[in-house]
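Homework-ish question, so no full write-ups if that breaks the rules, but can someone show me the predicted structure for this set?
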Amino acid sequence: DGGITQSPKYLFRKEGQNVTLSCEQNLNHDAMYWYRQDPGQGLRLIYYSQIVNDFQKGDIAEGYSVSREKKESFPLTVTSAQKNPTAFYLCASARSAEGYEQYFGPGTRLTVT
Amino acid sequence: SQQGEEDPQALSIQEGENATMNCSYKTSINNLQWYRQNSGRGLVHLILIRSNEREKHSGRLRVTLDTSKKSSSLLITASRAADTASYFCATDAGETSGSRLTFGEGTQLTVNP
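A: Not a homework solution, just the prediction itself:
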């Protein structure tokens, strides 16, 4: 059963704590992405990776960090430096970064109080 | 930066009617993609149209692309209550944008039974 998974579905944290969101894919895709979605809004790109051991900042990278040590995994850490971390986080993957559709995970809703 | 802008922001129709959503963008693109998002879920890819294509069909979906006007439209024919969702256009500007997608803010479609 191929796909992209994110865990957990809901996550609650206290302000000042770092938190790591998981994203795994078994589609053998080279490219992976992290987006943030706020209520009633579109998706904003946080970080993306076109290949293992490489990643680039998106439009709103401040306060976030990523790693891409394995092809199938692209975890996102929301650090305490992120001023407004409460949001819906979506991970996606694509066969490659150029010219292909993206496949999305089910999302993680993070609430920080 | 928001590349695509959808119009209208919200659309409410009766089952059986057609729904048309529009997307405008600012820079030249390699392809334009449409995605669907049910409330609280990940996005699902609907259709990809390349810059050298003018029209594409997939089931009840018809997408047009006018690169001279930098606009695209998504037509859903014979709509069903299950089509209720948010619809997003996303542009791929190729290497000039770092080979990533830029999403609009979406059209919320409600199909009333």
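Now go work out the reasoning yourself. Hint: The mean pLDDT of chain B is 92.
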